[in-house]
Design a protein that fits this description.
The chain is of the alpha/beta class. It folds into two domains: about 100 residues, 60s Ribosomal Protein L30, Chain: A (2-Layer Sandwich), CATH 3.30.1330.30; about 150 residues, SPOUT methyltransferase, trefoil knot domain (Alpha/beta knot). Helix content is about 30%, strand content about 20%. The strands form two sheets. It has a seven-stranded parallel beta sheet with strand order 8-7-6-11-9-12-10. Strands 1-4-3-5-2 form a five-stranded mixed beta sheet. The longest helix is centred in the middle third of the chain and has 13 residues. The chain is elongated. The protein binds S-adenosylmethionine (SAM). This is RNA methyltransferase.
């Protein structure tokens, strides 16, 4: 049995079809690829690759700069049927089309999508992302949610994909472990949560907003925290579907916080008591 490192396949041709998954295809195009049942996503950095594997993600191939090969030998040994490709930093960059912060990549099969019901089952705190389209913000929200006891995340149809390369990296791989689901019928889902014992709270500065440290909020048994996009905030139709609006009081003429910062403050303040 090969140790993976010595069997690594050296690449130099940017158009090599064996690494098409890593080439300048957009991640959106990757999702539509037909070579895998549920499409492919890219995990970047050895830490993120290891976290993805630990969370049960299945690798299609590995692609690492020479200097990373030895440190990942145990990973290759655990997946003897998965091809390992390698090359210089320059080759990797010309194939991937993006600057690599870490020279370790894996192409992985997208996991089966979860249902909304499975995310809510047994949860006490969930975050709901209302068209948060920025991948960095989505990744940062996943990281804070995981670290502060939020049980899951629901995403509106136009929120960014948590399995986009940048979202994965910023989340430090928490997108693999924290349950999440894409919601098809957004306002209906919020209404359904309200009808089944959830308090759905919009984090937004509106005329009706109560302060974040209102003690009745953290005392709620099941709380959904809705977060909005940078430019638009929580959309009016979403605000209408929420049970309560909540604000983090602002000082010194600063209008609002970045959504991932507001999320972290709220997750901590409203953790279940
Ligand atoms: C940058 S803010 C959007 C501000 C938007 N331009 C507006 O004026 O409504 C992005 C999101 O972060 C959250 N957020 C930011 N600051 C907040 C605050 N002080 N209180 C409550 N939520 C806040 C909200 O969910 C908001 O939709």
């Amino acid at each position: 049995m090969s140790d993976g490192v010595s069997a690594a396949i050296e690449l130099s041709d940017p158009s090599d079809p064996r690494v098409a998954a890593y080439s300048t295809l957009s991640d959106a195009a990757l999702r539509r690829t037909t070579d895998a049942e549920h499409g492919i996503f890219l995990a970047e950095s050895s830490v993120v690759v290891r976290r993805a594997l630990a969370a049960g993600m299945r690798p299609a191939s590995f692609f690492l700069a020479h200097r990373y090969l030895d440190s990942m030998a145990d990973v290759f040994a655990a997946h003897p049927d998965v091809p390992v490709y390698t090359g210089t930093d320059e080759t990797m960059q010309s194939i991937t089309g993006f600057h690599l912060h870490r020279g370790a990549l894996a192409a992985m099969y997208r996991p089966q999508a979860r249902s909304v019901a499975s995310v809510l089952d047994g949860a006490r705190r969930v975050a709901l992302l209302d068209d948060v389209a920025d991948h960095t913000n989505v990744g940062a929200i996943f990281r804070s949610a995981t670290g502060m006891g939020v049980d899951g995340i629901l995403l509106s149809p136009r929120s960014a994909d948590p399995l986009y390369r940048r979202a994965i990296r910023v989340s430090m791989g928490t997108v693999f472990s924290l349950p999440w689901a894409r919601v098809e019928h957004w306002e209906d889902t919020l209404a359904g949560m309200s009808d089944t014992g959830w308090t759905v709270a919009a984090l937004e500065l509106t005329e009706q907003s109560v302060d974040l440290d209102d003690p009745t909020l953290a005392a709620r048994d099941r709380l959904g925290l809705v977060l909005g996009a940078e430019g638009t905030g929580v959309r009016p139709e979403t605000l209408d579907a929420c049970d309560v609006h909540v604000k983090i009081p602002m000082y010194r003429d600063v209008d609002s916080l970045n959504v991932s910062v507001a999320a972290a403050v709220a997750f901590w303040q409203l953790r279940p008591v």
